[in-house]
Amino acid sequence: MATSILLLLSLLSVCAAQTFFPVSNSALYFSRYNWAFTSAAQPTALTSNNGAYIKVKFTGTSIALGINTSFAPAMPFMNLLFTIDDGPMKEVAVPPRSEGTLPLASGLTAGTHSLVLYVYNSLQSSDRWTVGVGNSAILGVRGVIVDSGAQLQPLDTLPRHILVYGDSITEGVQAECQPGGDLESNAATKTWAMALAAGLQTEISVVGYGRLGWTIPGNGNVPPVFTPGAPDSSSWNMVLAKFPRNFSIAPDAIVIGHGTNDGSAPPSTVQRNAQGWLSAVRQAAPSSAIFVCVPFGGFQKSALEQATANYIAASGDTNVFFIDLGAQAAYGTAHWGASAESCDGIHPLAYRHGQLGSMLAVQVAKKLKW
Fold first, then answer.
1. Residue 198 Ramachandran class (φ > 0 left, ψ -120 to 50 alpha, else beta)
2. CA atoms within 13 A on the CB side of 167
3. Per residue in 271-289, pLDDT tens?
4. 39: Cβ contacts below 8 Å, ≥ 6 apart
5. CA atoms of 42 and 306, how far apart (whole Å)
6. Side-chain half-sphere of 166: how many Cα atoms within 13 Å?
7. pLDDT digits (tens, 9 = 90+) for 100-150
8. Rounded CA separation 155/71 (Å)
9. Per-residue pLDDT, 41
């Protein structure tokens, strides 16, 4: 139910009479598997995942986000990218250590409009796992603010949903190859994961963290993907620390592309962790198709192939698949050193992401007959 913004002055700094819709409003669509929701007196949607998104329709002439980043670094730490009515994308910085409004659009023609908003990039050096540490590169959304008397409506979503796990490549590090660090060079909307979703015509939840692997933690204090016997020290099953990932509605497909950052790990350890993850994720998502993908650079291929084969042989699971795109995908992204495909030899450029995601979509669609 809408609540007058005038009753929420402690939450939002808004002078004019407007209407506030909390994140619990059913018209707001949050990408399904990469947001956490608090149940406090002021419910908040939380994410540290670049590529997480929100969709909604609204009436009136303006829209803004109600945000809480009081736990963020005292410096620029995150950018959003959004489109109104499928118009040109616009980038906006998230205010650090702020509780208030983030204006997105005003002066629109009166009528019904659409908003699609993505987390575009964020600092890898800040904490990306724990809310409330004073240095958390985590976005808190409390709702949307529209004109007084305006309404929200659901924006159409695609019927299928996929969940993608990955590392810095998956979150779009160096996709733009620009100087200035994470907030200038990274681009979550231009990754292979987004191209995969477009090719399959699905909604997508991207879970990607720089440096993360089967055996090592990611930047920002993110635990390894899977730690045997220690679910609280794993990240595949958690959106953030103390916020479990909700698999009550299973994804149609789960795609995992880890292994690049495990290059120095013993293959036997990678194999053990990947095989353990397959058992755990199957228990969490019984109906999902699961794809274990060799990283584009070919890292830890044998360990991942053996882990998948061992799991299938032991379980009889016929809905698990192994994909290796081979030398065609590895070209230009298999070793350090700039190439035509990569700014540094590992992280693909935006155009190469599109190619890789399209190649993978063909293979996934063949397996599932989509």
1. alpha
2. 28
3. 999 999 999 999 999 999 9
4. none
5. 47
6. 26
7. 999 999 999 999 999 999 999 999 999 999 998 789 999 999 999 999 999
8. 30
9. 79
The DSSP code for 2 is -
> How many helices (DSSP H) and strands (DSSP E) are in the chain?
6, 20
Inter-residue contact 155 to 83 (CB < 8 Å): no
Please give the Cα distance from 192 to 196 (Å, whole number): 6
Let me know if 366 is exposed, middle or buried by CB neighbors in 10 A (0-12, 13-18, 19+). exposed
DSSP code, position 348? B
Q: In one letter, which amino acid is 359?
A: M
Percent of the chain with pLDDT over 70: 96
> What does the block give as tokens for 39?
């149940």
Report the C-alpha dihedral over residues 281, 283, 287, 289, rounded to 10 degrees.
Answer: 30
CB of 64 closer than 8 Å to CB of 19: no
Q: Is pTM, for the whole model, over 0.90?
A: yes
Looking at the chain, list the stretches that DSSP marks H as alpha helix, in order from N- to C-terminal side.
182-185, 192-200, 267-284, 301-315, 327-330, 350-368
Nearest residue to 24 (alpha-carbon basis) of 144, 109, 131, 158: 144
In DSSP notation, 211-227 reads T--SSSPBTTTBPPS--
What number of other Cβ atoms are within 10 A of residue 355's Cβ? 16
Mark 157-186 as b/e (b = at least 16 C-beta within 10 Å). Answer: eeebbbbbbbbbbbbbbbbbbeeeebbebb
**What is the number of alpha carbons within 13 Å of residue 77 lying toward its C-beta?**
26
DSSP of 290-306: EEEE--TT-TTHHHHHH
User: Residue 199: how many CB atoms within 10 A of its CB?
Assistant: 18
pLDDT at 299: 97
Beta strand 238-240 with 243-244 is: antiparallel
Closest to 292 in 3D by CA, of 315, 252, 322 = 322
Per-residue pLDDT reduced to its tens digit, 1-31: 333 332 233 344 443 579 999 999 999 999 9
Q: Distance between CA atoms of 53 and 55, rounded to whole angstroms?
A: 7
| Residue 16, pLDDT score | 52
Q: What is the pLDDT of residues 228-250, one digit of tens each?
A: 999 999 999 999 999 999 999 99
CB 47 within 8 A of CB 245: no
Side chain identity, residue 341 = E
